[in-house]
Specification:
By secondary structure, the protein is α+β, with helices and mostly antiparallel strands. Helix content is about 45%, strand content about 10%. The longest helix is centred in the first third of the chain and has 14 residues, at about 45-55. It starts with 5 loop residues before the first helix and ends in a 12-residue tail after the last helix.
């Protein structure tokens, strides 16, 4: 089970920390295998990412970061930064989230559907959550949620930066999760079904 370290648990309100353990997936042999995996990405994902890059390098982004810091109020920057960095380092999949954010819910649902364990901290619920958001903004240039990390690497949010949905569509997500130790090494078919569990080939048939 993925959990926040004991040192962090004492400083983060457990009500806002969600650990989702992975479950063992052991599908029966598929009836058939697709000849070729569907190609993902495309115009929409590229447009979103290009727009995100443009915004992050604009004066608007700097203003949003300044606002996030102001909203956090007075806090111990070194201490909060250390806690944030520890959460990223200690958890194979770390999601900084707002409990009311639809994009956050979509990202977590994707991992739930893939049976991937993760740790999520709801910054709008935990004590000091806005301070963590401010430090994330300084580190990544992003103030929006979710802010997702896999194996210590920031992948942006739901659809941008490149975003967890974009990585899934491009067939890159499972490999990242595997390298981070969030899922066990598996054969190509199991990896394929983890990416697309709804595919006909991944259905379980009884004898």
């Amino acid at each position: 089970m993925l959990t926040i370290s004991s040192a962090l648990a004492s400083s983060v309100n457990a009500r806002g920390v969600v650990s989702r353990p992975s479950t063992v997936r052991n599908p029966r042999s598929p009836v058939s295998v697709r000849a070729q995996q569907q190609q993902g990405g495309g115009f929409v994902e590229g447009l979103i990412n290009n727009l995100t890059v443009a915004i992050q390098s604009s004066p608007l982004a700097e203003g949003k970061k300044a606002l996030a810091v102001a909203q956090a109020g007075s806090y111990d920057e070194a201490s909060v930064k250390a806690k944030m960095e520890a959460m990223i380092a200690d958890n194979p999949v770390m999601i900084f989230s707002f409990s009311t954010c639809p994009f956050c819910k979509n990202a977590k649902k994707l991992l739930d559907d893939m049976n991937v364990g993760y740790t999520a901290v709801e910054l709008n619920e935990v004590e000091g959550g806005m301070a963590i958001r401010a430090e994330l903004a300084k580190k990544t240039g992003r103030t929006s949620m979710p802010n997702i990390w896999i194996g210590g690497v920031g992948i942006g949010g739901c659809n941008d930066g490149p975003g967890i949905m974009t990585l899934k569509k491009n067939g890159e997500l499972f490999t990242m999760l595997e390298k981070a130790g969030a899922v066990k090494a598996s054969d190509p078919m199991e990896a394929y079904c983890a990416e697309d569990p709804s595919a006909d080939e991944c259905r379980v048939y009884e004898d």
